[in-house]
Amino acid sequence: DTEVTQTPKHLVMGMTNKKSLKCEQHMGHRAMYWYKQKAKKPPELMFVYSYEKLSINESVPSRFSPECPNSSLLNLHLHALQPEDSALYLCASSHPWVVAGEQYFGPGTRLTVT
Amino acid sequence: AQSVSQHNHHVILSEAASLELGCNYSYGGTVNLFWYVQYPGQHLQLLLKYFSGDPLVKGIKGFEAEFIKSKFSFNLRKPSVQWSDTAEYFCAVTGTSWGKLQFGAGTQVVVTP
A45 contacts in B (CB within 8 Å)? Predict the structure, then answer.
């Protein structure tokens, strides 16, 4: 199984809402990632977890709060977002500490903030 | 500063034409190079990667890429494209910092029947 799944596929939320994005993989990968991708742009790294610990935070605003409850799951909690946060949010996984390691991407959650 | 640049933002070509997409990087030290593809409505997937050894690497779906260290380049090629190759193509690089995959701006490739 080389699949990374993400739920929901689409999410519309108001600026005062609290919502969460979920990502799951069963490839035994111990590194998981969140990326943000705006239309016609490349993915931008947000967070990296290694062995369930946050190892990279690319200066992401605190309204985005990641969580890695176990080695297969990765969540992104959203609160008080702005319209400019509307984007495709991608999750990925890989073996950690392998610089040349391939990252496997999920299909993404298309987020619209109204 | 570290950077990845892709030469073309948009390429249109006919089926059976040859494709070459340019990618240059600016990184100090050892690099690992990737080409990812994003088909319409699908997730990003790896086409091929280079980290050491033979600078000519072959990937899936008939793609290949050549690493030229002296030119800091990793260009993607396919001798004969099909309509199904219509997609966004991203060059990406990791340096010595594990986990930090930096993408180029992407090239939108449209193959017409």
Answer: 100-102
